[in-house]
Amino acid sequence: MGGYRRPSLPNAVARQLRQAAGFGCARCGHPYIEYHHIIPWSEEQHFRPSDMVALCGNCHPAVANWARDRQYELKYAPYNISQGKMQGALDYDKRTLNFKVGGTRYEETPTILQFYDTPIIKCRLDEGQAKVSLVILDETFHQVLVIEDNVIRFRVDDLWDFEYGHRHAVARRGKGDVILRMDFRGDEAIIEGRIFLGCDRVDLSPDRMTMPRGMQVAGGHVRQCAVGIQIGDPEVALPVRCRLS
After folding, report:
1. Which of 31, 89, 125, 221 could potentially form a cystine with 164 if both were Cys, beta carbons 3.0 to 4.6 Å apart?
2. CA pair distance 224, 244, nearest whole angstrom
3. Which among 50, 51, 37 has a CA at the least distance from the CA of 6?
4. pTM of the full predicted structure?
5. pLDDT digits over 34-90, tens only?
6. Number of other CB atoms surrounding residue 6 within 10 Å
7. How many whole angstroms separate alpha carbon 19 and alpha carbon 15?
């Protein structure tokens, strides 16, 4: 005999709550969040964003016991919004350097994509844990999103949505505009999105990498190389106007 099941939270409501909290827990800023009813579901069955707040699993139980007025104060002064940025560790338990980037498999290749002398996507093993670093630039060379050894940071007003779940993350600059998708749930760590290198764009689609001047790489397997894809002369420093800060 089936029991009652609460309806799933609508995607649009979840996104609105993430945006309102700066894509992290309203109390501490952590990106792995849950959705708390300030007016409890047991009191009123609703999915009103005005009466809900994004919280991480650690802060959720404590905030749920606060007085209601204090919960609303937290909702309207979330940590990441006050800081103007989101920063937090991506908790990926990945123990091998096996990646699928733009449809090509990279195995034990510490620098997957390099622009002149500067690594754009790289990885390393640290005490048995895979650490990923990458930079997402826009057309004006502004750093939209940076990951350094699995620690991600970005200004909250640079993204339309950042959705983080267990071992996967998606960053969007607008509806349907995915700039980064990371999925570490399988044997291979999948990285997709789009990156600007100088004035040129690199698209990392599920089946291919499209580089400047229409060059494409698809379906390959790169193993035990120092650098997978090199764009520009590696002996030449990145032009000052494009230098990563």
Report:
1. 31
2. 26
3. 37
4. 0.88
5. 999 999 999 999 999 999 999 999 999 999 999 999 999 999 999 999 999 999 988
6. 8
7. 6
